[in-house]
Amino acid sequence: MSEGATVLQRTLARGRDLADVVRTMKAMAASSISQYENAVHALNEYDLSMQLALAASFRQALSEPPAHSRRDDGIGVLVFGSDQGLVGQFNEQLAGFVAEQLAALPGQRHIWVVGERVRARLDENGLRADASLPLPGSIQAITALAGRLLIDLENARAQGLVDQVYLFHNRPLAGALYQPASQRLLPLDAAWQRQLAQRPWPTQSLPEVLFDNLRTRLVLVREYLQVSLFRACAESMASENACRLAAMQRAEKNIETLLENVQRQYHRIRQSAMDEELFDVLVGVESLDVRQVPRK
What we know:
Strand content: 5-15%
Low-confidence stretches: none
CATH topology: Pyruvate Kinase, Chain: A, domain 1
Number of strands: 5
Order of helices and strands: HEHEHEHEEHH
Number of helices: 6
Oligomer: single chain
Structural class: alpha/beta
């Protein structure tokens, strides 16, 4: 076998191994997408119950004297990105979106980043993170991450560092697409509170908050924030895996095309080698026939 054919054989073997890796990563990404999307859907019922409870609390609070609102200049920013690569422009687009949105907000920024890759992209946009956290490795770990972020935010608010809190992440769309999304977590929008308070109750028995409505409302708001952070993280990770799945599909198609081209080259070289061997055999046979012809 010629040296060229040997090289092509090795290329084919490496290409097939790489194709196996890509197929495995495709399967893992597709499985992860389903898990995170199912987790988001599972939140719907709990989120509805939480909104109804908040609606009851806000409705009762309409008759209470307004609480003192403190306004500070600090802005808390939470950004969910990715820790791993092979996601195309996932982090670049999100970092650009965050920089564009924050440019219109005055005040000192305090940034919490989830995902090392997006942290680097934010640095390139002139946004240095105060804290960086790794992405959770499973759905169950998202709850602990959300709780950690809430504790950090509460400490920052207690120290007077932040008053407004904004959340940024990628939200999945149909067809393995995604788009950057933002949400103001705190302070709660007054129009949203009024709209929620005026929401029709699903039964004839109107609710009433017993005991301390303010304390109850604080607990409900904390649960609302927990759900919001959990949803944002799950949506971000679903978008990340959808982006990785699309990248693996493109890679698989490119590898298949490359293997087909290498396979054709290998067959051409093998066919050429076989033709040369056959030609040598024919020449040898003809030379034998010539030597065996008797002389007159």
